[in-house]
Amino acid sequence: MVATFEPKTDYKVVGTRPIRHDGYDKVTGRAIYGGDMKLPGLIWGVMVRSPHAHANIKSIDTSAAEAMDGVFAVITGADMPKAPSKLVDLGEGNINFKWASNKLMADDKALYRGHPVAAIAATDRYLAEEAARKVVVEYEVLDSVTNVVDALKPDAPIILPDLVGDDLGEDVTNTNMAAHVRHEFGDVEGAFASAAHTIEREYNMQMVHQGYIEPHNATATWDEEDRIKIWTSTQGAFPARTQIAGILQVDVSRVKVTPMEIGGGFGGKIPVYLEPIAAILAKKSQRPVKMVMERTAVFETTGPTPGARMVIKLGADANGKLTVATSDIWFEAGANPGAFIGPAAMCIYAPYEIPNTRIDGWDVLVNKPKVAPYRAPGSPQVAFAMESAVDELCEEAGWDSFKFRVDNASKEGTRRGDGVLFSKIGMEEVLEAVKECDHWNSPLGDAPEGKVRGRGIANGYWFNIGLKSSANLAVNADGTVQLTEGSTDIGGSRTSMAMHVAEVLGIGAHDVRPTVGDTESVGYTDVTGGSRTTYATGYACWLAANNLVDVLKERVAVLWDIKPDDVDFNDGAFSSKAEAAKSIDFKELAGKLDDLGGPATSTGTVDLESAGDGFGMHIADIEIDLATGKSDIIRYTALQDVGTAIHPSYVEGQLQGGAVQGIGWALNEEYFMQDDGKMANSSFLDYRMPTSLDLPSIETVLVEVPNPLHPYGVRGVGEVPICPPVAAIANAIKDAIGTRLYSTPMNAGSILEALK
Amino acid sequence: MTTNSPSKVHVTTTINGQQHELLVPPYMSLLDTLRELIGLTGTKEGCLDGNCGACTVSVDGRIVDSCLVLGAEVNGKNVNTVEGMATPEGLHPLQQAFLEEAALQCGICTPGFLVAAKGLLDNEPSPSEGRIRHWLAGNLCRCTGYDKIVRAVQKAID
């Protein structure tokens, strides 16, 4: 039985904008991020990486490196514990320990450029790098494949010879196809036969990277009792512990993970890359070892999100009702299985009510880094295809594409493409907000000489997740509360958690002091990902606060010599049900606890099955220089159902940041692959992410439709905003130049080509 | 070229107003000199090739990517980092504005943005939004989409 809550509005703390608790440390340079970690006797680890995208490793000679003064440990694939092929749920995607281990250190074959083949620990980073250059590796270079079309050709080089692919339940061998899934509902063929308008198109997207500014890092110790301590930037200390223990083949209780401040993740810091290697180096050298990844390796070996080939077909009746949709999508998994075809299937048709649907998805290996979650993994890809195709269908039939989206909008009871029925969602409310917003009601304006302008819209959807979270509370004598919770804080979530507690207890947001706990100070908590943190960990904090109220009622009962059941709690004050005049507020009570039984503590834990789906729409205005193809986003608005915004500034920030990542994906970003499987643009100079100069102010409209599944109506917000931008911009470009682009990036070169 | 090499460079430099006398390996960046030799880890490493701005510091009033400067080069110079912005009287107006405007999410780029923005406001007291966006284009932020950063700099001007 899932608990549901009535919407409230009379909040005291929820909806305000307090300064974040960790803010002072972060604007003064005091905050300790993973890369800032120091321990007595610390030495540095570095990787030796394959220069080839696909190669057999014939031999590795580490003797020259080992002979160097100041080199304490050298390891290769032979030093990796043999992890079994076992699938474990990490909250946002699965992990198979065998593949995860192989990703960190090649066995007898390098599967992508940058694949680690050895690692070295030495007194400092410069010396470790010098030693790494002395490792001699003999390779037999193999043909590589870096896109899904080539990877599925009959004569394609096979990346994992022992892979058994799953083709709709049938085992397949000698293949790069890891999985093929299908969801089908209604009568697809019949619906196309009777459709008045149909359209079929192919869309392609290049692989892109999460682009967090902080490189991956890890510091490890391994003591004589075989206890392993890890300090790292991770989106989840507990899921990191699961991975580290699984890869090292030790019990989880042997591993303590301390989450440091984290410099961005967007899904890419859910997988571990360095932590188990640093631990093995620490064991071998008997010293604490720290590793910080170089930026080139961040691009070449971590993240990214799948590139995709997508063929989509839509059919509608003469009245503008969408009756049928089919899609075939091929996603790049990288060198191990696990592209996000499941989430893609859940998201592709979600903004629409369509009676007849089919989706086929293929998870395809290529000689690129194994993909990692990136903000709504799988959804921006299919949104590009679906939202472009919807516009094209409307163009062909002569319909207004906004009205079409309104007329076909999903609502409570609509069936998603994978079969799930929606509970209360805010899609229709978002579309109402679009009609009323300033941007939608403002003209595009005239372009200067030599330029043209266009406007595009697109929907976005993410299902959001719940899962497990834990929080602990302890009352201080001065009337403040210590909060220890398990969610990594990437964007101000500590403060949202504290606000949940403060709202219940009737105290200020800054009367609650939040700490992100390590794996030995708080209960299991899933990743900061899936747009779950404020929803699920906030829920746990709310529970903990309510449990604390119950504890405190017992203390009040002692104070007044009455029964706990006869104590009321309202608006931060305890009162006697029998004598209305008897009252004591939270702060005053906190000062008396020593005489009423001592420390007052509580916990809250949740394991939430559902989370409440998130919808948004973006409006993009673009201006294009006809002579050069250069484009400028001149106005941009993100509208989204955010449930209740606990701290509106950080909710707006999620919408703005997600939109800008999507703008980068649309216009500039790509893994530019050479024929030999090397990424040609593995630096921030050549992998061009948006700068402040490239963008206008990103306007936001927070549509608050309280989520009945959360006590304050919170709905996950972080992932929806990256889903609409690519299609919104594609639709805007079409509006501006009259030609549609079918692949990303839609950069100046491809726009210029389209103008010819 | 190892750390065992006897040849280190003698450097006397002023960092955040305090004089330091250092022996710096000739190949060591200013970034590592600050972080590893002095322990000022507020200056962050993002790319080590001068493209993200996370390691921005000011040298004699001019902002630089400290990953592209050698520690040996700051002999006799004045270096200022994010740790030098606040005073015992309180935060620098930019720091206060970043907090009030929620101009940071993960915060890893924040020290670089603050030092860069201070470099602008020290020389141009009231830059336009366009000027701010142009000046800060050397600092990458992946979380915020820059809107709240630009607002914070504008607020610090007021």
Number of domains of chain B: 2
Number of domains of chain A: 3
Total number of helical segments of chain A? 19
CATH class of the largest domain in chain B reads Alpha Beta
How much helical structure, as a percent, in the residues of chain A?
25-40%
Q: How many individual β-strands of chain A?
A: 30
User: What portion of residues of chain B is helical?
Assistant: 25-40%
CATH class of the largest domain in chain A: Alpha Beta
Strand order of the largest sheet of chain A: 3-7-1-16-13-14-15
CATH topology of the largest domain in chain A: Aldehyde Oxidoreductase, domain 4
As for the CATH topology of the largest domain in chain B, it is Ubiquitin-like (UB roll)
**Name given to the CATH homologous superfamily of the largest domain in chain A:** Aldehyde oxidase/xanthine dehydrogenase, molybdopterin binding domain
Protein name (chain B): 2Fe-2S iron-sulfur cluster binding domain-containing protein
Domain 2Fe-2S ferredoxin-type (chain B): 14-67
Pfam families (chain B): Fer2, Fer2_2
Pathway (chain B): Alkaloid degradation; nicotine degradation
